[in-house]
Amino acid sequence: MDLNNVTVIIPTRNRPKSLRRLLQYYEQSGAEPSVIVADSSDAKARSENELTCESSELPVMNFIGYDPTTPLVEKIQAVVQNIDTEYSTLCADDDFVTPNGLRRTVGFLENHEKFVCAYGNTIAFTADSIRGGTNFSWAPRYTYARSIADPRPESRIVAHLTNYMQTLYAVHRTPVLLRGFNKTAEATDDIRFGEIMHSALDTIMGKTKRLNVLYSARYSAPQSAAAENTISDFVRSGTFERKYKRFKRALVEALQQQAPITQQDAIRIVNRGMTNYLMETCDYDPSLAKRLVRGDDESMDFPPSLPSFSSQSVSLPATVKRSLLNAPLPDDLAFAGQRVYRTLYKWRRIAEIRDVDTLGFYVSLSLKDANSRGELTAIRRAIASHPDALDE
Fold first, then answer.
1. pLDDT at residue 227 greater than cutoff 70
2. What is the pTM for the complete model shown?
3. pLDDT band at residue 199, thresholds of 50, 70 and 90?
4. What is the average pLDDT score of the chain?
5. How much is the pLDDT for 374?
6. Crossing angle of helices 72-80/191-205, nearest 10°?
7. Looking at the predicted structure, is the pLDDT value of residue 133 above 90?
8. Which CATH number fits domain 6-228+373-391: 3.90.550.10, 3.40.190.10, 3.30.300.130, 1.20.1250.20?
9. Could you tell me if residue 390 is left (phi over 0), alpha (psi between -120 and 50 degrees) or otherwise beta?
10. CA separation for the pair 220, 45 (Å, rounded)
11. What Å distances lie between residue 313 and 30, 274, 310, 325, 346, CA to CA?
12. How many Cβ atoms are within 10 Å of 240's Cβ, its own excluded?
């Protein structure tokens, strides 16, 4: 399958070497998606990026410059308004979205009209320049992510926020991507709530699919982790209530447009989903999570929750330990990984859940597949060819 019906949007800022590496990766792979570089770099880096795009061998290459202060959501919103391909996706300048991942997700969407976006397996990689070459290592990421295919929007959004996986970098039907960014730009003013908002809107507007294909590789760098504020930062600064009120209003409106429910029911559904998000993703105590999301809403009942455990002070029950340690591993290691993950998830053992991510290829990333092996080799080769990009 060719890729002339998909556009890859590359937002970039002050990382010309990483951008050059990504574009050459696509050139050398033989993939030919349409590419739009949305650049909000300072003058020197922007000049380098323009030269890189002008010399690119990709058949459809567009460079758009933005003021360095332009928020990411507004920048992407402006880009998507002018896309004429049926499908679109985002790829950070220091990451990789694989050609085979693009083909598989586009192929799926073309044959499943009720799904609005699709993505696949993700790995996180690190790389360091060493004498004589590059030290490259990787581990699976987001192994907990699942397809959400319930026919009811109200069920999809709760399922999504309970087992949260951002879909910002999935392949979307372009009109869906645009509607999501239009709404997100209206209702949020930071990338944290913006990411949650856009992903939640995806699940309201339709079903989302995770495919068992190596879809993306994300650079795991120390400076990447602390770039944006977290939900906890908003709670500490006293801005959470204001931000959440706008966020909730927008999701309630979107939910009512897609489902025959009352405003009060929509409020209850959004609050329930975000309560679960705060408990599962942020490790908040259930009572604090409920209090934060309710705000001035009327009192409401929530389904009973599993007990919340502190990963520092409480050990797993002995019966659970025995089931993990004494049971022989089956031949199917994917099943073994799923069993460990689900047991730990049930008991809300956050530290262990993260450790299980290290075993994620047992769960979902099958490198027995020749295409996945080939994609990983191409990514490794691209990184080794541009060691200077690792220093940006």
1. no
2. 0.78
3. very high
4. 81
5. 75
6. 40
7. no
8. 3.90.550.10
9. alpha
10. 22
11. 53, 26, 6, 20, 17
12. 20
Which tens digits make up the pLDDT trace of 150-196? 999 999 999 999 999 999 999 999 999 999 999 999 999 999 999 99
Query: Can you state the angle between helices 72-80 and 174-187, rounded to 10 degrees?
Result: 150
Tokens linked to 8: 């890859």
Domain range list for the chain: 6-228+373-391, 231-294, 318-363
> Residue 280: phi, psi to the nearest 5?
-85, -45
The confidence score (pLDDT) of residue 165 equals: 94
Name the nearest CA neighbour of 378 among 11, 12, 21. 21
Q: Which residue has the tokens 């209702």?
A: 187
